From TrEMBL:
SUPFAM superfamilies: Calcium ATPase, transduction domain A (SSF81653), Calcium ATPase, transmembrane domain M (SSF81665), HAD-like (SSF56784), Metal cation-transporting ATPase, ATP-binding domain N (SSF81660). The chain crosses the membrane at residues 129-147, 153-169, 348-369, 375-398, 840-861, 877-894, 923-944, 964-985, 1017-1038, 1050-1072. Residues 75-149 form the Cation-transporting P-type ATPase N-terminal domain. GO terms for biological process: potassium ion transport. It is a multi-pass membrane protein. It is found in: Cell membrane. PROSITE patterns: ATPASE_E1_E2. This is P-type Na(+) transporter. Belongs to the cation transport ATPase (P-type) (TC 3.A.3) family. Type IID subfamily.
Length: 1090
C-alpha cells in the first residue's frame, strides 16, 4: 500500500517565480543537428518513416529544409522544438506570416471537426420507412388501388403517411435539440504571426501557427509545446483522466512514439482545457487530423449496426463487395438491423405477409382458382384481415408520446427506437468522471496533527462552501442551517491546530472561488485541487480573501515570496508576513505537496512519521488523493530585496535569484495535517445504481482513472461490495484486460465491474464482449474517448452539459442535466413502453385472428347463386382495424407503469416481445372472439332466414333480397366492435381480473369503475367506439352503400349475449393462469426449503 505519488496540483493564476522551461530555440532556416541523417526518412533511434502518401490524418507541408521528409503529427512528441519548427517551416518566436497562413488554410481546410453521418433529412426520412411492416402496408395499398378499392387504399395510405410524419418530426426535433447542445470547440485563440500576437477564430488555425495559452483557455488544435510555465491541462474529455496532467515543453520522447496520449507530456490536444500556468505551442494538426477529429472520423465511417458486414474492396472482389452491400442495404430496408423490437416486428411482418398470401391462395382454391372480381376482393379482404394495419402507427405515436415524457425528464431521444430499446438493457457501462461523479474535486477528509478528523458530508455543489455539513471530531455542524452552531466557532473549540491548517491551505493557494451576487451561485477559477482546498477553508470562514482581509486600510498578511509547484519536487511554498511585524520580523512559510516529498522535510520523530504514513495510506485506500500541509517560521528580512515580483520571465528569474534557496526554506517544517481530496459521486448515483441492481441490470464502471480511485467510488455507490473484492475479475486494469484474447475474455466467469485506465479501444472491446454473451448494453459517457463505444453499444447515452460534441453525435440519447439517475428514468419508461407494446399488440392480434377465423369459415356461407357471402365487408374490416382498434391500442400504449416494473429482471432478449404467454393468450382470446362473431352471424343469417335466404350479389350492392345478409353482417360488425372494446380493458393486465385489477389501490364491488377510469384516454376511446357504432349502423346510405349492412333491432340481444360469454371466457382463462402461477410459486417455495 502507499499514497498516490502523482500529485498534479498547484494551479497558477498569477505568474510564478521561475523562468520558462523551454529548450534553446532556433530559427526555421537553421537545420537541426539531430536531423542530419533524416534524408532517408527515419528518425535516429526510432524505426518510423514519414511519407508524403500517409493517410488523411497526416499533416504535410511539402519537403522540409534541405530535402527533409514530410511531417506526421503522430510523431511530434518524439521531436525537439527546433526539429518540429524545421519540419513545419515556422519560427517559435515570430510564427508564420499572414500570406503563408492563408496558403496553408487553403491547403488544409478550416480547423473544424466534422459531425458524424446520419443527420441529413434524407437519412431521418429513411428511418421511418425502413421496416417490413411499412413495406407490407405499401404492397397492400398498391393491391387495393389495383382492384379499384380506392377507399381501402386511401385509408392505408393515410396510415403510412401518418407514421412517416410523426416519426420524422420526432427525430428531426431531437436532432435540432442536440445541435443546440454543441459547445465543445474553442471559438477564438491567441496566435503569433509575423511576431505580432492577435486573437483570431480558432477555425482559421493552420499547422505551423504559434498559439499562446493561459489558464481557462480551451486548446484549439493539437500542439507541440514550445515553452511552458508550470502547465497543467484537463484532458478528461479525451482520456478520461479525472485530474489535470502536468505538461513540460522540454521533454523529448525520441524512442516512445507509441506512448499513450495521456502520457505525452510535451503535447496538448484539441478540446482539452488549461487549468494551470501558461505556454506557447506549435500547431501540428488541425480539424479532422487532430486526435478528436480522428475519433470523429471513425464515427463517420462506422456503420453502427451489430449485424452488418463491413465492406472492404481490397479484401474481397468487386462482385462480392456489391453482394455484401446489397445484403446490408436490404437488411436496413426490411428493418432487420436494429433494436430487438424492430427486428422482431419486422420478422413478424414478413411472417404475416407470407400468411396473407397463403390465406389468399386458400380462398382462390375454394373457388377452384376461378378468380372472379368477387373472389379476388374476398381473397384480398382475408389477406388484409391478417395484417394489423394500425400497428406501426400506434407504435410510432406511443413511442413519440413516451419521448415527450422523457424530454420532461431531461432525456433527449435522438431515435424513437432507442426508447423501447433502453427498456431491455441487461448491462450499463458507465464512465466515471462527470457521469457517476460530479467531475469536480472536493476535500473529503482532513486529519490534523493532534489526531482530530474533519469530514465534509452531503455536499451538493463542490464550489459552494455552504453546501452540506462538516463533521469535526465526530460532532456535525450544518453549513446551511444557521440555527445550529456556527462552524467557525468549532475552530476555537477544537484548538489552534485547525486554524493553522485552514490558514495554510488558504494562503498556499492560487485558486479563486467567488459568489455571483445576482444568481447566488458559486464559481471557481484555478486548478481543481486548489479549488477544493480553498472551498474547504471557506467553509469555516477562512478563505484567502478573509485571511487577507483589509483592516484599517492595510492587509493583515503580505506575500513575500512564492516557490511554485514543480513536478521535480512535488510541492509548493508561499511566504507571508503579518503587517504587525512590518515585514522585517518573523514570517511564515506555508507548504503543501505530496507526502513523500514533504515527509523528509518534517521536524517530527520517526514514530510520528510512521503514524502520518499509516494515516495517509488509510486515506489513499479510500480513493483519496493525499496532500500534506506544513508550515515554519522564517526570517522575513531575507525576502525584502526581491519582493517586487513582475509578470515578465526575465524579472521572475532576477527576483528568484535574490530569494533564499528553496531548500533553505522548505526544511524543519511543522506538520499540520493531511487532506484527502477526490471527485465525489453524484448524490443520486448510489440510489440509481441500487435501482438498476434491483431491476436485474448489472452496472459496470469503465474509466480512464486510477484503479484505486475507481474502486473506492465503485464501492461508495454500490457497484462493488467490499466483501467481493477478493474476486480477481471484479476489478481489472485495462492493460490486463487488453492482454487477454477474445476467447480468454469469454472464458471469464463474469466481466469486470470496474475497468480502470481504459482507452477507447478497451471500452469497445468491453461492449463487444457483452455482445458475445448475448447481453444488451448501454454505454454512457461524456468525453471524446467514450464516442466509439457509444456508437458500438446497443444504446449510447451522452451527457448534454459536460459532454463533447463528438459524444453527442455518437449517442442515441442525451441527458440534458448530466444526471445518472435520469438513465434509470429512461429504463423505467422503456420498460413501461415494452409492457404497453405487448398489451396493444395483444389487442390488435386478437382482432386479426378473430377476423381470419370468421372470414375463412365464412367461405361456407353461400348465397342463392352458390357464392360465398362476406360475414364482414372490406370497409368493416378496415374500420375495425384502423378506427376502432387503433385508438384502443393507443390508449393501451399510454398505460401507467406497473408497480413492480423496476423490481423484475429484464425481459428475455432471446424470446423478445412475443412471449409464450402473449402467443397463447392471443390464440385463446382470438379464437373465442372469432367463434362468437360466427355465432352472431349464423344466429341472424339462419335463425331468421326467409324465402330469399342470403339473397344474391349481396357482397356488392343492396337489393331487397339482401335484408337478412345485411342484418347478419351488421350484427357481426356490432359484436366484433363491442368485443374489441371489452378486450381493451381486459388487456390492461395479463393475469389480473378486470374486476380486481388494482387491489393495492382499489377494492370493493365498484373497483372496476375506478380501474377503467384510471386511463382516461383509453376510457374515452372505449366510449367513442361505443357511441360511433350506432351512427355507422343506422345512418341511411352510409350503412347500405358504404359499409354494406343494415339497421338492426332484436339482434342487439345476440350482441349482448356474445359480450357476456366473451367476458366469462377471458375471466375464466385469467383465473386458470393465476391458479397455475400460484401452484408454481408454492412448488418453488417447497423446493427452496428442501
Amino acid at each position: 500500500m502507499g499514497t498516490e505519488i502523482e500529485l498534479d496540483v498547484e494551479g497558477q493564476t498569477e505568474p510564478p517565480i521561475c523562468g520558462f522551461k523551454s529548450p534553446t530555440t532556433s530559427k526555421a532556416t537553421t537545420r537541426s543537428p539531430t536531423l542530419t541523417t533524416l534524408n532517408t526518412g527515419t528518425i535516429i533511434g526510432e524505426e518510423c518513416e514519414y511519407r508524403a502518401d500517409d493517410d488523411a490524418t497526416t499533416t504535410t507541408t511539402g519537403t522540409g529544409p534541405g530535402g527533409l521528409p514530410s511531417f506526421t503529427p503522430e510523431a511530434a512528441h518524439t521531436l525537439s522544438v527546433p526539429d518540429v519548427c524545421a519540419f513545419l517551416r515556422t519560427d517559435p518566436e515570430n510564427g508564420i506570416d499572414d500570406d503563408e497562413a492563408a496558403r496553408r488554410l487553403q491547403h488544409h481546410g478550416p480547423n473544424k471537426v466534422e459531425g458524424a453521418k446520419g443527420l441529413s433529412l434524407w437519412t431521418i426520412l429513411l428511418r421511418q420507412v425502413s421496416n417490413s411492416l411499412t413495406l407490407v402496408l405499401v404492397i397492400t395499398m398498391v393491391l387495393s388501388f389495383a382492384i379499384s378499392d380506392h377507399i381501402e387504399g386511401g385509408v392505408i395510405a393515410a396510415v403510412i403517411l401518418l407514421n412517416i410524419i410523426v416519426g420524422f418530426l420526432q427525430d428531426y426535433r431531437a436532432e435540432q435539440t442536440i445541435q443546440a447542445l454543441y459547445a465543445l470547440s474553442a471559438p477564438t485563440c491567441k496566435v503569433i504571426r509575423s511576431g505580432v500576437t492577435s486573437t483570431i477564430k480558432a477555425e482559421t488555425l493552420v499547422p505551423g501557427d504559434i498559439v499562446r495559452l493561459g489558464v481557462g483557455d480551451v486548446v484549439p488544435a493539437d500542439l507541440r509545446l514550445a515553452t511552458s510555465i508550470n502547465l497543467s491541462t484537463d484532458e478528461a474529455l479525451l482520456t478520461g483522466e479525472s485530474l489535470p496532467v502536468s505538461k513540460h515543453a522540454e521533454v523529448v520522447m525520441a524512442r516512445d512514439r507509441d506512448v499513450p496520449l495521456g502520457d505525452r507530456s510535451n503535447m496538448v490536444y484539441s478540446a482539452s482545457t488549461i487549468t494551470r500556468g501558461r505556454a506557447t505551442g506549435i500547431v501540428v494538426s488541425t480539424g479532422m487530423g487532430t486526435e478528436v477529429g480522428k475519433i470523429a472520423g471513425l464515427l463517420r465511417d462506422s456503420n453502427g449496426g451489430r449485424n452488418k458486414t463491413r465492406v472492404n474492396k481490397e479484401e474481397m472482389g468487386t462482385l462480392r463487395s456489391l453482394v455484401v452491400r446489397a445484403r446490408n442495404g436490404m437488411r436496413v430496408l426490411l428493418g432487420l438491423d436494429g433494436t430487438p423490437l424492430q427486428v422482431t416486428l419486422s420478422k413478424f411482418a414478413l411472417l404475416l405477409f407470407a400468411l396473407a398470401i397463403l390465406l389468399a391462395i386458400i380462398v382462390f382454391s375454394v373457388s377452384k382458382f376461378d378468380v372472379t372480381d368477387e373472389v379476388l376482393i374476398y381473397g384480398i379482404c382475408v389477406a388484409v384481415a391478417v395484417i394489423p394495419e394500425s400497428l406501426i402507427a400506434v407504435l410510432t405515436i406511443a413511442t413519440a408520446l413516451g419521448t415527450r415524457a422523457m424530454a420532461r425528464g431531461n432525456v433527449v431521444i435522438r431515435k424513437l427506437a432507442a426508447l423501447e430499446a433502453v427498456g431491455g438493457v441487461t448491462n450499463i457501462c458507465s464512465d466515471k468522471t462527470g457521469t457517476l461523479t460530479q467531475g469536480k474535486m472536493v476535500t473529503k477528509k482532513v486529519w490534523l496533527a493532534n489526531g482530530t478528523e474533519v469530514e465534509v458530508l452531503g455536499t451538493t455543489h463542490p464550489f459552494d462552501p455552504t453546501s452540506g455539513s462538516v463533521s469535526i471530531g465526530g460532532e456535525v455542524f450544518s453549513l446551511a442551517d444557521h440555527g445550529m452552531k456556527d462552524p467557525e466557532e468549532a475552530i476555537g473549540a477544537k484548538g489552534e491546530n485547525l486554524k493553522e491548517f485552514l490558514e495554510s491551505i488558504a494562503l498556499c493557494n492560487n485558486a479563486v472561488v467567488t459568489k455571483a451576487e445576482e444568481a447566488g451561485t458559486y464559481s471557481a477559477i484555478g486548478e481543481p485541487t486548489e479549488i477544493a482546498l480553498q472551498t474547504f477553508a471557506m467553509r469555516f470562514g477562512m478563505g484567502k480573501s478573509s485571511v487577507l482581509a483589509v483592516v484599517d486600510g492595510q492587509s493583515q498578511q503580505q506575500l513575500l515570496a512564492e516557490y511554485p509547484f514543480d513536478s521535480s519536487c512535488k510541492r509548493m511554498t508561499v511566504v507571508y508576513t503579518s503587517t504587525e511585524s512590518g515585514g522585517a520580523g518573523i514570517a511564515c512559510a506555508y507548504t503543501k505537496g505530496a507526502l513523500e516529498a514533504l515527509l523528509p522535510l518534517l521536524d517530527a520523530s520517526n514514530e510520528q512519521k510512521v503514524e502520518i504514513v499509516a494515516k495517509a495510506e488509510a486515506l489513499a485506500a479510500q480513493g483519496l488523493r493525499v496532500l500534506c500541509v506544513a508550515k515554519r517560521s522564517v526570517n522575513g528580512a531575507l525576502f525584502q530585496a526581491g519582493n517586487d515580483v513582475s509578470a515578465t520571465p526575465e524579472k521572475e528569474k532576477a527576483s528568484a535569484s535574490i530569494f533564499p534557496e528553496r531548500s533553505s526554506i522548505e526544511m524543519h517544517l511543522t506538520f499540520l495535517g493531511l487532506a484527502g481530496i477526490y471527485d465525489p459521486p453524484r448524490l443520486e448515483s448510489a440510489a440509481a445504481v441500487q435501482k438498476c441492481q434491483a431491476a436485474g441490470i448489472t452496472v459496470h464502471m469503465v474509466t480512464g482513472d486510477h484503479v484505486k480511485t475507481a474502486t473506492a467510488i465503485a464501492c461508495e455507490i454500490g457497484i462493488l461490495r467490499s466483501d467481493r473484492l477478493q474476486n480477481g475479475t471484479e476489478v481489472m486494469v485495462a492493460s490486463a484486460f487488453d492482454s487477454l484474447s477474445d476467447a480468454e475474455i469469454d472464458a471469464l466467469e463474469s466481466l469486470p465491474l470496474v475497468l480502470a485506465r481504459c482507452s477507447p479501444t478497451t471500452k469497445v472491446r468491453m461492449v463487444e464482449a457483452m455482445h458475445r454473451r448475448k447481453a444488451f448494453c448501454v454505454m454512457t459517457g461524456d468525453g471524446v474517448n467514450d464516442s466509439p463505444a457509444l456508437k458500438k453499444s446497443d444504446v449510447g447515452i451522452a451527457m448534454g452539459l459536460s459532454g463533447s460534441d463528438v459524444a453527442k453525435e455518437a449517442a442515441d440519447m442525451v441527458l440534458t442535466d448530466d444526471n445518472f439517475a435520469s438513465i434509470v428514468t429512461a429504463i423505467e419508461e422503456g420498460r413501461r413502453l415494452f409492457d404497453n407494446i405487448q398489451k396493444f399488440l395483444l389487442h390488435l392480434l386478437i382482432s386479426n385472428i378473430a377476423q381470419v377465423i370468421l372470414l375463412l369459415i365464412g367461405l361456407s356461407f353461400k348465397d342463392n347463386d352458390g357464392m360465398s357471402v362476406f360475414p364482414l365487408s372490406p370497409l368493416e374490416i378496415l374500420w375495425a382495424n384502423l378506427v376502432t382498434s387503433s385508438f384502443l391500442a393507443l390508449g393501451l400504449g399510454l398505460e401507467d407503469a406497473q408497480p413492480d416494473v423496476m423490481q423484475r429482471p429484464p425481459h428475455d432478449l432471446q424470446v423478445g416481445i412475443f412471449t409464450r404467454e402473449l402467443i397463447v393468450d392471443k390464440f385463446v382470446y382470438g379464437t373465442a372472439m372469432g367463434g362468437l362473431c360466427l355465432a352472431a352471424f349464423t344466429s341472424v343469417a339462419y335463425g331468421m332466414s326467409g324465402a330469399d335466404g342470403l339473397g344474391e350479389g349481396c357482397n356488392e350492392d343492396w337489393t331487397s333480397e339482401c335484408g337478412v345478409a345485411f342484418r347478419a353482417r351488421a350484427t357481426t360488425f356490432a359484436t366484433l366492435t363491442f368485443l374489441l372494446l371489452v378486450t381493451a380493458w381486459e388487456a390492461k393486465h395479463f393475469t389480473r381480473s378486470l374486476f380486481n385489477m388494482h387491489p393495492e389501490k382499489y377494492s370493493g364491488p365498484l373497483s372496476v369503475l375506478k380501474t377503467v377510469w384510471q386511463n382516461k384516454f383509453l376510457f374515452g376511446a372505449v366510449s367513442a367506439g361505443f357511441v360511433i357504432c350506432f351512427p355507422v349502423i343506422y345512418i341511411p346510405v352510409i350503412n347500405h352503400v358504404v359499409f354494406k349492412h343494415n339497421a338492426i333491432t332484436w339482434e342487439w340481444g345476440v350482441v349482448m349475449a356474445c359480450v357476456v360469454v366473451y367476458v366469462a371466457i377471458i375471466e375464466g382463462w385469467k383465473a386458470l393462469k393465476r391458479r397455475t402461477l400460484k401452484a408454481k410459486m408454492v412448488t418453488g417455495v417447497g423446493m427452496e426449503g428442501v
